[in-house]
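The freezer alarm interrupted the setup, so I double-checked each line after restarting. Inputs confirmed:
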Amino acid sequence: MNKDTNQYHDESHLIALLKKKDKAGISALYDNYSHALFAIIHQVVDNQEIAEDVLQECFVKIWTKIDSYDSSKGRLYTWMLNIARNLAIDVTRSKAYKKGQKVQSIDKDVHGSAGSVDSINVDTIGLSAVVSELKPDYQLIINLIYFKGYTQKEVSEELEIPLGTVKTRVKTALEKLRTVLSN
Amino acid sequence: MKKEEFISSGLLELYVLGSISNEELSLVNDMLAQYPELNAEVMRIESDLIRLAESQSPKPSAKVKSSLLDAIDVIEDSQEKLEEKKAKVIEIQTSEKGKTSMTMLLMVAASLALLIVSAFFNYIQYQEIQLAKQTIASLNQEKEVLANDLSTYKTSIESAENKIAVLRDTANVTIPMKGLDISPNSLALIHWNKYTNETFIDIASLPEAPTDMQYQLWAIVDGVPVDLGVFDVLKSAATLQKMKTVGNPQAFAVTLEKSGGSPTPTMENMYVLGAV
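Predicted 3D structure, all chains:
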């Protein structure tokens, strides 16, 4: 394991610092996760400045709500991911955001139903070269679950594929990506 | 479930992605507890997902971190101040409470005292009012009695005036009727007007008539008794009672008859008699 992985490892130590309201905790947490969380937020709000605002809000929320994190319900990263995604989605529902994004979002609204076959290309727009190495079906599933926060069931219904297939496709997609990312 | 089977199921990926049902979550937790080495697999997946996300966008600008730390300072500061204030408020509240309870006690005591005093005076006042009411009632009663008396006196004065007028009238002749054997102490006067023939009886003394009987006045005209009407013995001595008119009487007499009078006098019940 490399140094980075070790940092992600050290979750319980980070959580202990955060619960003590030690600023070193939030600082380390930011260093470890801000890029990934920013990317998730950016995928949703599609605007650098807004995404940075949401990112700050996200870490403030992590700081103030850390006591409600329960490790038996999942990983810290998963918990933070949900906070980031929900804040980003909330922002896109605000009037100010809608006004500012009107022109840009027309395309996406037209193809609002994320799972339809026609919208595959639209939904994967913005995903980087890494993801584009995947087959469209896999790109779509990663986009829906990871960046849009769909549940397995929602993906299954949206794409009209069995739940088991959703699971194996996620697995396969991530294995493919691992190879790509390692290169 | 075997470890390898579990790893290939994709559940660990979905666990890190947070797209997992509650049953699946307990299965994952059970497996992680049973095979601690699976944690390494979880780390690997998480690391992959983080790198995947990072590959999607540039890093946020550096100012975000400093701005975040500033924001957290502000939050903590205001939190501290808030707690200080809360502590102060509690302190003040507790110290005020002591004072307040003493003040309250005094106030309550004062209120109670006022209430008692007020109740006492109210009671006194009530008593006085009751007394005043009683006085007014008895005064009213007295007033009524006096008014009755007054009207009685008025009546008796009027009748006295009438009597005087009759007596002063020179046209009137007064004939005393003296008591007969049946009632020797009885006495009544007749005032008879020789021009108008008006006849008044003035009872000086007659025994009270039995309830079903009345006195009847008679005039003797040409030897024949003429009915001049029945009368009652009135309490007021001053009263003259006007009887029927009669012309040319030779004598007057009073007999006790059945109530309402008789057509002819009952001679044995003749009380008084007087000749003109």
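Quick read of the result. Residues 80 and 86 of chain B are 10 Å apart (CA to CA).
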